[in-house]
């Protein structure tokens, strides 16, 4: 067989009939991508309640805002994970309350005022930030309202007048 014979076989090759169909695979990946994007939480604020803290339940669907974190449990009052005062089964000690104003908690005011001054000094340097007086309060649902009222009153005196209460969603 010479060259003519080889050419005859080369010319008679059949084209490949197998083609990859990726259209359905692309559709599947688009559906997965949309599902993951819809289920992904984009909230910059994460609220992780303590295991000993039972938050109230609500049907509210508003996402949490970035603010100072204030925790009121039966054991004590915390600002940004720093324990400020001890509570006795959810009651404020008489020594922690101001004698002239029984709704005013002196140690809590001092810490919140320091946090406000720090936020205001950062806002002076960074013009994109602004002190807005927001606080997220995590409070045990079994605490009496009297304690929460004292904490909110003291936070308002320190410049934190926008108090949001963290709740557990029923959904």
Q: How would you describe the overall organization of this protein?
A:
Helix 4 links the parallel strand 6 and strand 7. The protein has a 6-stranded mixed beta sheet, with helices on one face. It has a two-stranded parallel sheet with strand order 1-8. Helix 3 packs across helix 4. The protein is an alpha/beta fold and 171 residues long. Helix content is 35%, strand content 19%. The protein contains 4 helices and 8 strands. The longest helix is centred in the last third of the chain and has 20 residues. The radius of gyration is 31 Å and the shape is elongated. The model has no long low-confidence stretch (mean pLDDT 83). The protein has 2 domains: 37 residues, no CATH class; 113 residues, Nucleotidyltransferase, domain 5 (2-Layer Sandwich).
In a nutshell, what does this entry contain?
The chain is of the alpha/beta class and 171 residues long. 35% of the residues lie in helices and 19% in strands.
Largest sheet: 6 strands, mixed
| Number of DSSP strand runs | 8
Rg (C-alpha, Å): 31 Å
What is the oligomeric state here?
single chain
Q: Which strand order spans the largest sheet, edge to edge or round the barrel?
A: 5-4-3-2-6-7
Question: Structural class of the helices, strands and pairings?
Answer: alpha/beta
The number of helical runs is 4
- Which of globular, elongated, flat, extended, rod-shaped describes the shape? elongated
Strand content: 15-25%
State the CATH topology of the largest domain.
Nucleotidyltransferase, domain 5
CATH class of the largest domain: Alpha Beta
Helix content: 25-40%
List low-confidence stretches. Answer: none
Mean pLDDT: 83
Order of helices and strands, N to C? HHEEEEEHEHEE
List the domain count as a whole number: 2
């Amino acid at each position: 067989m010479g060259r003519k014979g080889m050419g005859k076989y080369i010319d008679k090759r059949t084209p490949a009939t197998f083609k990859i169909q990726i259209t359905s695979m692309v559709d599947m990946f688009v559906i997965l991508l949309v599902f993951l994007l819809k289920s992904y939480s984009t909230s910059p604020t994460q609220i992780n309640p303590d295991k000993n803290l039972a938050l109230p339940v609500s049907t509210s669907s508003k996402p949490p805002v970035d603010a100072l974190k204030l925790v009121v449990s039966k054991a004590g009052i915390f600002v940004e994970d720093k324990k400020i005062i001890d509570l006795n089964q959810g009651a404020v000690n008489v020594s922690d309350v101001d004698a002239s104003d029984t709704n005013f908690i002196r140690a809590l005011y001092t810490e919140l005022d320091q946090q406000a001054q720090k936020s205001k000094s950062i806002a002076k340097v960074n013009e994109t930030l602004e002190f807005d007086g927001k606080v997220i309060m995590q409070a045990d649902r079994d605490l009496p309202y009297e304690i929460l009222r004292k904490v909110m009153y003291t936070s308002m005196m320190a410049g934190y007048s926008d108090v949001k209460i963290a709740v557990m969603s029923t959904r």
